[in-house]
Amino acid sequence: MTEFIVITSGKGGVGKTTSSASLAVGLAKRGKKVAVIDFDVGLRNLDLIMGCERRVVYDFVNVIHQECTLKQALIKDKRYESLHVLAASQTRDKDALTKEGVERVLNELKDEGFDYVICDSPAGIEKGAFLAMYFADRAVVVVNPEVSSVRDSDRILGLLSSKTRRAENGGPPVAQHLLLTRYNPVRVAAGDMMSIDDVKEILGIEVLGVIPESEGVLAASNAGVPVILDEASHAGHAYDDAVARLLGEERPMRFLEAPKKGILSRLFGS
Amino acid sequence: MGLFDFLRGSPKQTATIAKERLRIIVAQERSARGSPDYLPLLRRELLEVIRKYVNVDQDAIDIQVKRDGDHEVLDLTVTLPDKAGAAATAAAREA
């Protein structure tokens, strides 16, 4: 049984690609057969975050236009052999993706016995974002604890419950999860940032994970190694927890508290 | 918060403001969700017609589609200006 998971947000720059890469790696690490697809036609980036940018020969649009086979376009990850990347096209126009084409590729991945297909959505609510979510069984809505991101997420949640295959066919609704990223416990404690409970209360859906703001995320994208593989980074551990929860494990939320300060930094601020 | 921040006075808790603003706008946008696309245009045209007769504000009309059992009800509320204001505009028009 193949599960299609869309990683979406509405707003740009909240961490969709970072999250797609880390969730895909986390699932592959647990022995699942995973494909991660970049739907951001014209602005390919997943390949950079995954560290396979120099191995892209064919892309998603080539497969859709039947200029190559799916097998030729899937890039096998060097770290986990059950993990495959399908890069977005860099040159074609946005209309290069079609509903029929996307469906054909997803069906082919299903026939190939993939356990999970992660669809990395572009920002916005245009065609690419629509097609990334259309066939989804599950959605991970990436949100920052910040007003515009939360509002856009609510808009996306509305689209997930009306503009998807499941919604149109009247089947069970797309399962929805929140993934809170760039969470800064110090600012939450100071009352400058909305807390996990605030965001949960406004959006009213279950939280899959909270990823603390971390220097590790930039370092990971610099190196092309998804942050989940960084043993020293809290963000990496938080992604690992999220993957476990995705697979049905129960794990307590970590990294929600500000680190304790010493007496000097307490007195003089930091 | 450090000693100096304390002396400077506590900053406003902006997270609470953010949450309140979001709560309102999200509720409003959710209620508009799924309602027919023609509502904004209908609202504008009704406003134009009403303004031929009464001088009402831009936001004087509130339109909502509500569910009542198995049929939908178009709920239309027009707020007319208070008497004094209306008299003033009428007087201004006559002058």
From TrEMBL, chain B:
Function: Prevents the cell division inhibition by proteins MinC and MinD at internal division sites while permitting inhibition at polar sites. This ensures cell division at the proper site by restricting the formation of a division septum at the midpoint of the long axis of the cell.
Residue ranges of coiled coil: none
Protein family membership: Belongs to the MinE family.
Any one of the GO BP annotations: cell division
Matches recorded under Pfam families: MinE
Name of the featured protein: Cell division topological specificity factor
Keywords assigned: Cell cycle, Cell division
Cleaved signal peptide residues: none
Keyword Cell division annotated: yes
